[in-house]
Amino acid sequence: MARDDRERYARGLDDYHDPTSGWGGAAPARSALTLRLILACFGFVVAVGLIVWAVAVSAPMPYQVVPAIVAVIAVVNIVVVARRKARGEPG
Fold this sequence. Notes:
Layout (H helix, E strand, L loop, with lengths): L2 H9 L21 H24 L4 H27 L4
Helix pairs in contact: 2-3
């Protein structure tokens, strides 16, 4: 990563997430990566808990598969956010 890119990430990526920010006096959008990471971890824990419960009570297959899909999506989200935070994006 070039030095200019690191300095740009340190300052923040104005208008990166919201192309309309700054219009009408609105401040540029900022990413809430830490909140997104916390919520993804919470979703993963809840989904795994639901999977364990569904297997323990021998629930029908959709009650086992849907939380598994949510857990996979949460893991992907955790990986994406962790990479962005490691890259130096603010939030």
